Amino acid sequence: MAISPTGLRPEPGSFRDPANRVFHLGQDVLRGLDAGAAAHWRALAGTEFFAALLADGKVCGTEAVDPVGVPDGVPWAAVLRHERIPFVSHPYEWSFTMLRDAALLHLEILRVALPAGFTTKDGSAYNLQWRGTEPVFIDVGSFEPVRDGEPWAGYRQFCQTLLYPLLLTAHLGVDFQPWLRARVDGIEADQLRPLFRGVRRLLPGVPTHLHLHGAMQSRHAEATTTDVRAQLRAAGYSRELALATVRGIEKLVRRLDRTPAASHWADYQRTCGYSAQDRAGKEQFVTAALTDGPRPALVLDLGANDGRYARLAARHADRVVAVEQDPAVVDALYRALRAEGERRILPLVMDLADPSPGGGWRGVERASFADRAAADVVLALALVHHLAIGRNVPLAEVVAWLADLCAPGARIVVEFVHPEDPMARRLLANKPEGLFPDYRRDEFERVLAARCRIARREELPSGTRTLYTAVVGG
What's the pLDDT tens digit per position in 95-123? Predict the structure, then answer.
């Protein structure tokens, strides 16, 4: 298939490797390769291990296409076309077990590549994405022939974006997400070493991959890469030793786990106060909203908790992104979905009052949550009162944000919890009296109607909660 250069758009997050660049043409995801990378691709495409990874879905679907041109008129030697990932996410939006499974996939790929004469020149967590609860390696341009006597070039990236965050959470019980969100290149050894002093120095993985690695970085700070490689070759570093190192890291990562602290949200379905009639009415309303129109390609379930409505949405949609603030709740949901074999739901960790912004170089290397959304249906169930009362976000701002997450003509399914509802009263009790005079159902309907067409409304049997289906721009 010939590719026309007209309409090609460079991927903002793909520029750090000059040998290859990802760009978009309509719905196609393409990768341009220079002469060296094209030669590596041709060698890689003929290997049994890479064919097996493709067949198992562990590497994103990839095929060569006829090159014609790319942005800026750069004459690439070869062009690949990749499968499109349903929803791009960032490592700081993953739960602990998700990050661990991504790390294990990266290590597995490296372990099978080395005996076949290949390595990966990168080790970044950003080289992995998700098909629901299934991790997939996307950086095909990272594969290159291995050179005996040289260390894994991606080791430092792997530590900073995968291993160190896992150590932080597994050993110290500290959520890694804010650390990764703060630095696109991950956690530096020097940042983490002060936290692992005393007896903590002896925790699994810490002596070798944190303290020794950090000391080696400092020792060789003035040495060139060529010097370090020469020293390793002289010391007898071999492909077999590299493979043994990868197996050792893989064993370590498998052993790492976290014991989540008790969370109010972990048992929300029992403590939220819904009656059986309310729950049945709510599920019927949501089902009707999901099926009243074209089948949604993407549903966002905001404030997904244990995934009750994400699972319901998955019956009627191609893909569901289930967003929840509590990392422990998301981790439990991910493990449950993985055990169920559910591949249509992607659970993510995110504070919806502080959603992921654009990050990295010029603020666009890692796209913001809003820029990635464009949902066909947004579920905002039992969410508005937490944002409006709990986080002091005006109702008009909440509605505008929900609308901004939608594709044109999309549906918003939103629940308004009345001020007299026990949950709203509990939130209001912790606020100064009279702080929220506009938190009323009539005001909510007014601001909702200003941005959307209210297609349906229904009050639940309890009488203190109302559901709406609103069409954006309708």
Answer: 999 999 999 999 999 999 999 999 999 99
User: Tokens 């490797």 correspond to what residue?
Assistant: 17
Q: Which two tokens stand for residue 199?
A: 């007896």
- CA separation (Å) from 19 to 49, 121, 331, 432? 23, 12, 37, 59
**Sequence-separated (6 or more) residues with CB below 8 Å from residue 367:** 12, 13, 88, 358
Q: Which residue has tokens 């008129």?
A: 73
DSSP run (H or E) holding 203: none
**Quick check: helix, strand or coil at residue 23?**
strand
pTM of the model: 0.92
- Which token pair is 236? 């007898």
Phi, psi of 139 (to 5 degrees): -90, 75
Q: From residue 17, give the alpha-carbon distance in Å to each of 37, 103, 106, 441.
A: 10, 21, 19, 53
| Token code pair at residue 388 | 């409006």
Spatial distance between the Cα atoms of 78 and 18, rounded to a whole number of angstroms: 14
Alpha-carbon distances of 209 from 118, 186, 190, rounded to whole Å? 23, 15, 12
pLDDT at 230 over 70: no
Report which DSSP code applies to 366: B
Residues in Cβ contact with 9 at an 8 Å cutoff, skipping those fewer than 6 apart: 23, 24, 25, 71
pLDDT attached to residue 65: 92
Q: Which two tokens stand for residue 34?
A: 């220079």
Give the whole-angstrom CA distance, residue 115 versus residue 111.
Answer: 8
Residues 6+ apart with CB under 8 A from 17: 121, 122, 141, 142
**Euclidean distance between CA atoms 170 and 96, whole angstroms:** 8
Q: Euclidean distance between the first and final Cα of the chain, in Å?
A: 39
Asked whether residue 273 carries a pLDDT value surpassing 70, the answer given is no
Distances (CA, A) of 400 to 142, 246, 317, 358, 472: 40, 48, 24, 19, 10
At 413, list the tokens.
């399914």
- pLDDT tens-digit readout, 7-39: 788 899 888 888 999 999 888 999 999 999 999
In angstroms, how far is CA 154 from the centroid of its own chain?
A: 20
In this structure, what token pair is assigned to residue 76? 């690439």
Identify the band that residue 234 occupies on the pLDDT scale cut at 50, 70 and 90.
Answer: very low
Report the distance separating Cα 88 and Cα 128, nearest Å.
10
CA angle 320, 321, 323 (to 5 degrees): 140
Instruction: Identify the helix (H) or strand (E) that includes residue 171.
Output: helix 164-172
Element (H, E) at 458: strand 452-459
Compute the chain's Rg from CA coordinates.
25
Residue 356 token pair? 């992921």
Nearest CA-CA partner of 172 in 138, 141, 195: 195
